[in-house]
Amino acid sequence: MAKYIVRYGSMRHLGVLSTRGNDRFRRGSQVIARTQRGLEAGEVLCDATEEAVSQLSDTSPGQILREMTEQDTNEQAHLLAHTPKTLAACREHIKRLGLDMQLVDVEHLFGGERIVVYYLAEHRVDFRELVRSLASEFQTRIEMRQIGVRDEAKLLADYGDCGKPVCCNTHLSAMPPVSMKMAKVQKATLDPTKISGRCGRLKCCLRYEYDTYEALLKQLPPVGSDVVTADGRARVLSQEILAEQLLVSTEDNRRMLINASDVLSVLKRGSGKGKPRSRGPERGRNENRDKPPQEETQGAAQEKPPQGDSREKPPRGEKRNGPPRGDKRGGAPRGDKQGGPANDDQRDGTESKAGPEAQDGPVVKDTSAPTEGLQENPGRPEGNGGPPLSPSPEKIEGPEKNNETESQGGPPESTDSKDQE
Question: The whole model's pTM is what?
Answer without folding.
Answer: 0.56
